[in-house]
């Protein structure tokens, strides 16, 4: 894999008409060549999950994600999953809860820190994404993510969704349905949860104190999974 990264680094420098000088990393070339993000830097998109309303065994959010993004829905170790339901247990009380787990869209994302090519990046509005054209499949981000929210595409893909380009040999994960957000719509999982009458998921702007999301986070003391890591996640949970 190191040979492949070295080759790609030389190729990138050659295409740019420059020599890859000692100490210059691929990520620096990628950042210099990347176009300016079109996302609004005043916004930080986030999500709130009420675990008290999230029923064990309900997979409406998972099914909606799979359908929206063209995922198979299979759960083998080699099958990409962008959102999954997990069960957590309080060891002191024995109380169990069900909640969806996906990319947490951290303000300080470990996946971005370890990516050697800049393929893992954070948009100006806080959404963490993967550029499949820059991804070399090293899977450093998979290992760095404490939420196990990144998947690797092992097999060729067919009948893909036009708004959700994917590719064999690339890493991928929840995008908060960025293609829908850019059309002023919310994530498919949130829409499905609402349509089913559960109301366990809420999407909005964490930077806007007047948004329903921000008001609920402030009023009910929403928490982050693995708060000890100080990642400032964009996905928050009530009742955990």
- Classified by CATH, the class of the largest domain is Alpha Beta
Beta-strand proportion: 15-25%
Number of strands: 9
Count of the domains:
2
Q: Look at the structure and give the mean pLDDT.
A: 86
Q: Please, how many helices?
A: 8
Q: State the strand order across the main sheet.
A: 8-1-9
Class by helix and strand content?
alpha+beta
Following the backbone from N to C, one meets helices and strands in this order, namely HHEHEEHEEHEEHHEHE
**Radius of gyration, rounded?**
19 Å
Q: What is the CA–CA distance across the termini?
A: 40 Å
Helical percent range?
25-40%
Main sheet overview? 3 strands, mixed
Multimer state:
single chain
Summarize this, please?
The protein has 8 helices and 9 strands.
Could you explain the architecture of this structure?
β2 and β3 (96-102) form a beta hairpin. With 240 residues, the protein is of the alpha+beta class. Helices cover 26% and strands 16% of the residues. The protein starts with a helix and ends with a strand. The chain has helices at residues 2-15, 26-33, 60-69, 110-114, 140-144, 178-181, 188-195, 212-220; strands at 45-50, 83-89, 96-102, 120-122, 128-130, 151-152, 171-172, 201-205, 235-238. The chain folds into 2 domains: 1-33, no CATH class; 41-238, Alpha-Beta Plaits (2-Layer Sandwich). The strands form 4 sheets. A 3-stranded mixed β-sheet has the order 8-1-9. The chain has a two-stranded antiparallel sheet with strand order 2-3. 34% of the residues are buried. The protein is globular and about 40 Å long.
